[in-house]
From TrEMBL:
Keywords: Hydrolase, Metal-binding, Zinc. This is Creatininase family protein. It comes from Bosea rubneri. Its cofactor is Zn(2+). The keyword ATP-binding does not apply.
Length: 233
């Protein structure tokens, strides 16, 4: 149930029936040979597919996130943490005013993790509200499925290469990228990070057969749907 396909009266009725809503969180950052919008594309799609059978409205993806380490790569856009927190507050308040009390943040980008710290602070001001943040790619079931395919999986590698964020006409290397020095990378500035990473893939091969990726995707959708249903306070 996409909010983009609803009007305000339908939202009002929906919130009276079911106080859950979903906000996908993404980022615009380098993903080697994949779309710069990979995190936004995947978060929005997995949220939509997970929520559809439940009849839970999904708001349009918040596409921009926090990714200061990749700013030396053209096309990467990173919000300041103060900007991001202020934006999240406005979004959560908007959902609350609309009648939603159980809010699921389906996150597609690790750099957005401070969002849950802020959401916890916000719930202190709105004690009848509950916010859950589901990092869809990091779920235990999804990660177990990834390891069954290939444990060498990372940012911008095969693990994030699905048909819907692949770029037409862009050939991927037929190679396996070795791991880099993670301690050196962590201490480096954005320009040096780019030197260390090169094309942007952290490590591993670049692509797997679509049949394997679609099976993996189904696990991610199911696990995301469970996060919308289970263990609300």
């Amino acid at each position: 149930m996409l909010v983009a396909e609803m009007n305000w009266m339908q939202i009002e009725e929906q919130a009276r029936r079911d106080d859950r809503c979903v906000l996908p969180l993404g980022c615009i950052e380098q993903h080697a040979y994949l779309s710069l919008a990979t995190d936004a594309i995947l978060a929005e799609r997995v949220a939509n597919e997970a929520a559809e059978p439940l009849g839970i409205p999904v708001f349009p993806v918040q596409a921009y996130g926090m990714t200061p380490g990749f700013t030396a790569y053209p096309g990467t856009v990173s919000l300041r943490m103060s900007t991001y927190v202020a934006l999240l507050e406005d979004l959560l308040e908007g959902f609350y005013r609309s009648g939603f009390r159980r809010i699921v943040l389906v996150n597609g980008h690790g750099g957005n993790s401070p969002a849950m710290t802020f959401a916890t602070e916000w719930m202190g001001k709105r004690p009848d509200a509950s916010v859950r943040m589901h990092n869809w790619w990091a779920g235990p079931r999804f990660q177990a499925a990834v390891r069954q395919v290939d444990p060498a999986a990372s940012h911008a590698s095969w693990m994030e290469n699905f048909p819907w964020n692949r770029l037409a006409g862009v050939a991927l290397p037929d190679a396996v990228k070795p791991p880099f020095d993670s301690a050196l990378y962590q201490a480096a500035n954005p320009a040096r990070k780019r030197e260390i990473l090169g094309d942007g893939n952290f490590h591993g091969c670049y692509q797997k057969p679509d049949e394997e990726m679609l099976r993996l995707w189904a696990v991610g959708v199911e696990e995301t749907r469970a996060a919308m249903v289970e263990s609300w306070p």
